[in-house]
Specification:
Layout lengths: L1 H12 L6 H13 L3 E2 H11 L5 H13 L3 E4 L7 E4 L5 E7 L5 E4 L5 H11 L6 E7 L5 H4 L1
Parallel strand pairs: 4-6
Antiparallel strand pairs: 1-3, 2-3, 4-5
Helix pairs in contact: 1-2, 2-3
Amino acid sequence: MPGLETALTKLRDAGFKITNARLAVLNTLYQSGNHLTSADVIERIEADDTSIGRASIFRTLELLTSLAIIRPTYVNSNTPTYILLSKEGHHSHIICTTCDRVIELDECHVDKMMDQIEQDHHIHLTGHLVEFYGICDTCLPQQR
């Protein structure tokens, strides 16, 4: 599980212990491979382990976000969904503005742009979250 191992290493390197709650949240996000709301994460964890409280799950989501291990995204909602970042610290996807379908991009297409941003702004970037918006091929005929 390279994504999970990378996340655990980042946690340890930042000086944090691997608690049951942290491991459960990471496992849930990793195994899902999709965007999950905090309610989704809670529901899945409670189905497996009732000893982990909601407050611990929320604190874990906040910690993992602050360490750039996961990222919250807002897909046509005020409720964030969470996704585990890649080993390289990035995540990109396309969102259909008609049906809200999310298409994950496995390959990073913005590396050259990041290089240019680093040069132009004298900064070392450690990750990114890119969202493209459009109309998927299923919805497009309905738009015409």
